[in-house]
Design goal:
12% strand, TIM Barrel, alpha/beta, 169 residues
Length: 169
């Protein structure tokens, strides 16, 4: 079904598709990594291969700790990984994937944005740029769509926005 949808979208000139599949709990995958690889990796690979053959980029949202399968996603052709929670994996651990995949992420929505002060938010923005991006790119910042529901103040969102729109060298 996904492949047919991608084919139809490609006919209309769609540049990319995004899937929303939360695979992680706070501290691990929902299933054993070996089971994920056996049951789900081949299906994702078929979808991503079909998308690539049609010139369609692949994006995936997944919350929770998915550290154990990020390399698998890269291997099978995922272009962009959208992570709302990086702290349950650690930016330092995600750094090993920079330059191999693009990260599309706000400041961590569970820890830093709702509980951090403005200085902590600014520092986290710098840390995200340091750990997730390269000079060629690889990191697209954004803000979480449900600020109120996630407990994010307008001041915190404004701080994040200002920090991410500053020129970096």
């Amino acid at each position: 079904m996904n492949i047919e949808i991608i084919r139809r979208y490609a006919e209309y000139g769609v540049d990319g598709i995004m899937q929303y599949d939360d695979w992680g709990l706070q501290n691990r995958l929902m299933i054993a990594p070996s089971d994920w690889r056996r049951l789900w990796k081949p299906a994702y690979q078929r979808v991503y291969s079909a998308a690539k053959s049609l010139g369609v980029d692949t994006w995936l949202h997944s919350c929770g700790n998915i550290l154990d399968i990020i390399e698998d996603f890269i291997e099978i052709g995922l272009d962009v990984l959208q992570l709302d929670q990086q702290e349950n994996m650690g930016l330092e651990n995600l750094q090993k994937f920079r330059g191999q995949i693009t990260f599309f992420s706000p400041v961590d929505i569970q820890t830093v944005m709702p509980r951090g002060d403005q200085d902590e938010i600014r520092l986290y923005c710098h840390s995200m740029i340091k750990h997730l991006s390269t000079k060629e790119g690889g990191f697209i910042p954004f803000w979480y769509h449900d600020m109120e529901g996630a407990g994010h103040s307008q001041e915190s969102v404004d701080t994040m926005f200002r920090e991410f729109t500053k020129p970096y060298h």
